[in-house]
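User: Structure please.
Assistant: Input sequence and predicted structure:
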Amino acid sequence: MTPYTHSWQPGLRRALRSAGAWVSAGPPEAVISRMARSDPRWPVFSSAVEYINVEAIPGDIVECGVYTGVSLALLAHAQQEQATDLSRRIVGCDAFEGLPPSRDAHPLWTTGTFSVNTWEHPVLPIGARATPEATRALFALCRLPPPVLEVGWFAETLRHTPCPAIALLHVDCDLYEGALDALNGVQPALQDGTMVLFDDWFLFKGHPDKGESRAFSEFLTAHREWEAVPYRTYGTCGRAFILSRR
C-alpha cells in the first residue's frame, strides 16, 4: 500500500479553521472527551485497546474504512490514555471515495455513500467531503499523534505495504466485498490474540450470508488456522472477536 504523499498542509489549516464551536467549547481534551461521550462504540473501543495492552499483543491499531476519522481518533485516544511500553502506530486505510459498487448493496446506501460528512464533526461541516486532510486535522485538533493513512481500495493497496503485526483491527467496510478484501489484505499481519472489531456486523437484518458476517465466515473457512472467539457486541450493529491460533 502506498502512503498518501500529496501536499496536505493547506487542507489541514483550512479544516482546523472550520472547527468553530468545537474549539471554542474548550481545550483539545474536551473535544476528544465529547466525541467519546457521544459515541456508543467508545466503551468497547476503550476495553478492546485495554485488552491488547494487558495481554501485551504487539503491533499496530489498524482501521479499514476511515470515513471522517472519528473512530480512528477514538481508538488513538484509547491507546493514548493507557500507560504502556508498547509502541503502536495508528493506521487508517481508505480510498476516501465512499462506498464502491457492490452486488450485496444495502438499501440505505448507494455507490459513493460516505464520501461526504453527514454528522456533527469537530472539523468537517455537514456536506463537506471526507478526505485524508480532514482526518489529519481531527488528530491535530485533539493533539493525538499523527496517523499513518494509506489511501486506496483495499484490494489494490493493502498487499503492497503490509503492517508487520496487527494488535487490533477495526473493520468498518459496511459491505461484503470491502470487508473480505480488507481481511485478505491484512491476513499476513494477524497473530494469536489480535482483536477484530466489525462495525457493521448485524446489518442486513443480521443475515449471516451478507455483509461483514459473510466476509468473516468465508475468511475463516479459507484460513483454518484461526478460530474466532466472541468478545462483545457494541454500538448499534457491531461485534468483536479475538483471534486464536489453532
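Residues 49 and 79 are 6 Å apart (CA to CA).
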